[in-house]
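FIELD: query
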Amino acid sequence: MRARRLRAGLRGWGGVGAMAFACALAVLFALLLPVVRSHGEGGGAGTGTGGHGVAHGSQARAAEECTAPEKQTLSPDDADGPTIDEIQSRRGEKRKLIVGVDQNSYRWGYRDPNSGGDAELEGFDIDLVHRIAEDLLGDPDAVQFKAIPTDQRIPAIQDGRVDMVVRTMTINCDRIQDVAFSAPYFETGQQVLAPKSSDITGYDDTLAGKRICTAAGSTAFSTLEQDQLDGRPAADADLSTTVPNQLDCLVRLQLGEADAVVTDGALAASQAAQDPTVELRGDAFTTEYYGVAMKQDADDLVRRVNQILVEWRADKAEGWQNSYDEWLSETMGDDSGKSEPPPPQYLRQN
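FIELD: result
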């Protein structure tokens, strides 16, 4: 009704002039609207609920300034907080820590088919999960494991499907814009896995024209993608083979659908242990650190996990070294020094 009355009032030359003025105002408003929206809708820049323009701008600046993502974590603290309180307030069968893990990474998070019956998850990452559950809930078995593919680790945290992810997850500058990480608990690097009969010698020109398999959403894929843009060794390689889970790359290699796999050296060593026809080629060409991933605003949980990691690494009886010896020494060698990360550094102390 109001629109019809306006059009009726704009008849005649005067109306035409008024209509032109109204159109000019509309155009001006349309031009200004993106600027207004970029300053937030229903929230300021510091609230975490501000407009996308502010959020993306802040994230872009943070990513650009990021040089040591493994140091962008909070100092250890054993105090409870809102996130921990919520976990501890669960009742009955639901009183469990919900953790996203892998069930296909040999020696990290996997089900041993030789254990008989309903094979339980076990491995280095699984040991860490039990340690966290024991600290938070007083019971190492108070865990609900959720197997998630590589590219669903961050969405599972953001959607609240899990409390945390402990799944050979590399801390990097892109990911710290989406989730919060603990201090590092393992050091590794990207490496090439290829058949023993292959002429591939490592991350070098022998990869030219080769089909390289990586897991979707992995640091291996993003590293290779960037290296292709920069004209580095994998510039002429075929990166079209991506899979949901890293173990699927080994299957592609076995089927002849890929010529090489690029993944964390720690995972590649486990895959080589599963298949004696493949082996690691060349040295690691990056340095990366695994961390426990949690929601961005779960500061109390991040601090608590960092405190648990301090104690786990210091525990000579059932700590980090014990888990390494049990699960990884067979595939990575007895020298754990190159895999234990350096003493952690924290973003701020309080």
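FIELD: remark
The CA atoms of residues 192 and 203 lie 6 Å apart.
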